[in-house]
Structure formats: C-alpha cells, structure tokens
Amino acid sequence: WLYKHNFVKHSEGEYVINDCHTNTVEGFFSLLKRGIVGIYHFVSAKHLDNYLHEFTFRYNTKKYTEENRFNLLLNSCDAKRLTYKNLTSNE
Length: 91
Description:
By secondary structure, this protein is mainly alpha-helical. The protein has four helices and no strands.
C-alpha cells in the first residue's frame, strides 16, 4: 500500500494545510489516554494491542447510537475464548 504522507510544521506556525492537520490523531490519543488513566489505570505491554483495538472501535463508532454500537460489537466478535490463565500469564 502506498500512502501520500503530508506534514505540517508546527515550529514554523503551520497547523493546517488544506486537509493536512494533526487534529484527528490528537483527538484519538486524547480518548485513549483518558480511557487508560480513567478506566483501566494501567495497561500491560502484553495486552496493549487489545486496548488499542478497543479504543479504535470506540473512536470509529463515536457517532453511532449505543444500540447500534453494541450490535456491531456483537456481530464482529470472533469465537476465540480468552481464559484467565492466558490473560494473566507472563508469556
């Protein structure tokens, strides 16, 4: 995949050039930080990707109703079972 990478130079007073800005990523990380500090208080490196997936889902469905978000979540769950032993192991 090829991505067109644009950038703004905050150090030179540039914050928006056409549709290039950092507002979206700053909004996402704000949600992630508030969620980790306010809900979970701690995130282990072992499960970091799962937390990121959760908050990506929350961010991408922020305009959905709670009912639609819940139904989408249920429909997208896989059948893999996470046991307590796997959750707490140091592997």
